[in-house]
Each structure stands twice: as C-alpha cells, then as structure tokens.
C-alpha cells in the first residue's frame, strides 16, 4: 500500500507542509498517493483531481500533488484559477526541484519542498483572507492500489 511508503513522522511532515503553505493563501493543496498508475499520469491526476472535488473550490485555486510510488510517476495539477496566474514553466520548475530529491530517495523532502513552492505562488496570487475557510482536507489521501 502507498500508505506504507512513508513513516508516520514523514506523513506528518508532509501534512505540516500543506498546513504551512495554506496559512498565507486561500488556495488549497492536496496530496494523493498510490502505488500504481496504469494510464497517462496527467490524465489520471485529472481524474483524481475531480474525484477529490478539487475543482469545486470557490476561486478554482486547488493544486494536486499526485504520486504513483512504485511506478515512479508523479504529476502536479493546478486548477484553472491558479494556472491563469502562474508563469508558464512554473509547474515544471517545481517538478524538477522535487525530482532531484526523489532521485536521492527522499520522497518526503521532495513533496514538502514542492508544496512549499506551490504555496508561495498561491500566496502571491491568492492571499489569505480573514474569512477564508479550509475548503479541502489537509490530510494525505491514498489510492486503493
């Protein structure tokens, strides 16, 4: 199970990165982990995005970090609201940064730093509002495979 790829402490570190990134933004970040992805990773990430109802955020500013651990695939998917605002190569830059950690076997640092980088952009385009509510859970979601 993908759930077993991380220790409890590592899962806590990733969730803390989400909470920290969301402190300064109305944007929403979610992490979904599975072992296998049998189709195109971006297509599958889009399916997970919809399944998690990430497209339902008020400002369409959700970001999904998807990873198929055993297949060594991952994707970052931003909703329309954030994609209209970030620079053209933004997601690729984050992916490259994360990949450098993944190649060294440090999935936790890669995810945590990618989340932090996304959070910084979200904060600059979607600053935290006093009446902001956390529209999506911060906990990591796991696939069945």
UniProtKB/TrEMBL annotation:
Signal sequence region: none
Location of the TPM domain: 4-120
Pfam families assigned: TPM_phosphatase
InterPro entries: TPM_dom
Stated name of the protein: TPM domain-containing protein
Organism: Marivirga tractuosa (strain ATCC 23168 / DSM 4126 / NBRC 15989 / NCIMB 1408 / VKM B-1430 / H-43) (Microscilla tractuosa)
Species lineage: Bacteria, Pseudomonadati, Bacteroidota, Cytophagia, Cytophagales
């Amino acid at each position: 199970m993908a759930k077993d790829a991380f220790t409890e402490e590592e899962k806590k570190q990733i969730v803390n990165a989400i909470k920290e990134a969301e402190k300064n933004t109305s944007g929403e970040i979610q992490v979904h982990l599975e072992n296998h992805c049998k189709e195109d990773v971006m297509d599958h990430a889009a399916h997970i995005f919809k399944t998690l109802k990430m497209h339902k955020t008020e400002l369409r500013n959700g970001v999904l970090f998807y990873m198929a651990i055993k297949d060594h695939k991952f994707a970052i998917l931003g909703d329309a609201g954030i994609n209209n605002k970030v620079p053209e190569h933004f997601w690729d830059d984050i992916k490259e940064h994360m990949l450098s950690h993944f190649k060294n076997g440090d999935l936790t640092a890669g995810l945590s730093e990618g989340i932090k980088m996304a959070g910084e952009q979200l904060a600059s385009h979607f600053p935290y509002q006093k009446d902001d509510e956390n529209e999506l859970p911060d906990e990591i979601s796991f696939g069945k495979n």
